[in-house]
Amino acid sequence: MVVEGLPYPTKRIKEGKAEIIIPDPDAYRRKDGVYEPAWAPVFYNPRMRFNRDLAVLFANAYRELAGLERLVVVEPLTGSGVRAIRYAVESGARVYAADIDPDAVHLARINVENNGVADRVTVERADANEYLARLKREGIRPSIVDIDPFGSPAPFIDTAIQSISVRGVLAATATDTAPLSGTHSRALRRRYDVKPARTAWEKEQAVRILVGYIIRRAASHEYGARILLAYYADYYVRIYAEIRRGASRADESLSMLGYGVYCPYCGYTGYTDTPSHQCPYCGGSLQVVGPLYRGPLCDPELVKRMRRLAEEENTTLAEHRRITRLLEQLEAECSITKPYYRLDRLCSILRMNMPKLAQLVDALRARGYKATRTHFDPRGFRTDAPHPEVVNTLIELRTRPDQV
Ligand SMILES: C[S@@+](CC[C@H](N)C(=O)[O-])C[C@H]1O[C@@H](n2cnc3c(N)ncnc32)[C@H](O)[C@@H]1O
Ligand SMILES: [Zn+2]
């Protein structure tokens, strides 16, 4: 399809309730046939639709929860404009969008016109940080600032926080999961000022490090940060934190920080306030990572509302089943803050065959503990049982599988 004024082949697609023009994916495929969004003149990643579906559900649930008549959303890295348009069409929001790339701004404006939301969505060519600072000077009070960059959101976090006047949500995507999960330790130190380590719960570590970073940055500007929703999907971390002005709120949020620990000798996972390097259970040398956030990863009331809205919107959501499953799982995990165990790793340390995950979860519950699978890893489970109890339950399952 050729669109006047666009010097590249395009395609018209539907996403949610928006209809948008994107660079034709067929023109930007690798040799193996896989579409490479970064090669296209304007960035549009169809795999991020899941992220955007949840963003719209979140926006609607947050609007209800906070009792807001109308949302004001700022999206300073907008690409094709798809996310901004969806916030306007599906959440009725007033949206301020920007991108540094003139091709992106041009296409996003065409998309805004075509969706009939030009009265509600403005798209400007600007650097994200300058744009956020300018909106603040102009007195715009965002209810949601959505930071969806290439790689790390760290360079935009300070201005995004400061752009929130009294109360609002910072939503951030991070695709730099290698540093966050402990693989590129120097980048982790540079970007997030975190002491690196390798744990068996690296996806949760990635989420908790980014949340911890947001809390620390928010505190330095005298804001508190409360996590409404945080998850890991595909190859990225996504966080929604409610930012509220106030020194005592900042202190309260800081009190949720600590260090994560993992013992590669006995499988112990947990947190500590003072980074000790000796495992309390086997005396082995601990892996210690942090600072990171140790509190709940979602607000149950918000997730409940998102689930209800997902039911109502089941025809517009591309992966309705996947969304419902994630929200159900997050709700179940929310009240257990200790990091997840990887059953395969734990069984290998204990030199035993793996029982079925469901069997272990049931056995832990039968002993009076909370236990559930985790959205982070299909081989993972989380529980509030102390480490020796987890080990004892596993050993008992091995010796008397039918009687636990
Ligand atoms: C991952 S894409 C955004 C995708 C979009 N949010 C979505 O949901 O489809 C990142 C965008 O940020 C833009 N960008 C990169 N650096 C920027 C900066 N400093 N200021 C503003 N935009 C920037 C890029 O041009 C690109 O369009
Ligand atoms: Zn140990």
Short description:
Dimethylates a single guanine residue at position 26 of a number of tRNAs using S-adenosyl-L-methionine as donor of the methyl groups. The chain has 404 residues and is an alpha/beta fold. It has helices at residues 49-66, 82-91, 102-114, 128-137, 154-163, 177-180, 185-192, 202-220, 247-254, 300-312, 320-333, 343-349, 357-366, 387-399, and strands at 10-15, 18-23, 72-75, 94-99, 121-125, 144-147, 167-174, 223-233, 236-245, 257-262, 269-272, 287-293, 341-342, 371-374, 377-383.
Note down, in words, how this protein is organized.
Helices cover 39% and strands 22% of the residues. The protein is built from 14 helices and 15 strands. The protein has a seven-stranded mixed beta sheet with strand order 5-4-3-6-7-9-8, with helices on both faces. A three-stranded antiparallel beta sheet has the order 11-10-12. Strands 13-15-14 form a three-stranded antiparallel beta sheet. A hairpin with a 2-residue loop joins strand 14 (371-374) and strand 15. Helix 1 (49-66) packs parallel to helix 2, helix 10 (300-312) runs antiparallel to helix 11 (320-333) and helix 13 (357-366) crosses helix 14. The radius of gyration is 22 Å and the shape is globular. The model has no long low-confidence stretch (mean pLDDT 95). S-adenosylmethionine binds at residues 43-44, 48, 52, 76-80, 82-83, 98-101, 104, 127-128, 148-150.
Number of contiguous helices: 14
Within CATH, the superfamily of the domain at 340-404 carries the name: N2,N2-dimethylguanosine tRNA methyltransferase, C-terminal domain
* Main beta sheet: 7 strands, mixed
Spatial gap, N to C terminus: 63 Å
Oligomer: single chain
- By CATH, the topology of the domain at 340-404 is Phenylalanyl-tRNA Synthetase, Chain B, domain 1
The total strand number stands at: 15
Q: Tell the overall outline.
A: globular
The helicity comes to 25-40%
Task: State mean pLDDT (0 to 100 scale).
Answer: 95
Indicate the CATH class of the domain at 340-404. Answer: Alpha Beta
Lateral arrangement of strands in the main beta sheet: 5-4-3-6-7-9-8
Strand content: 15-25%
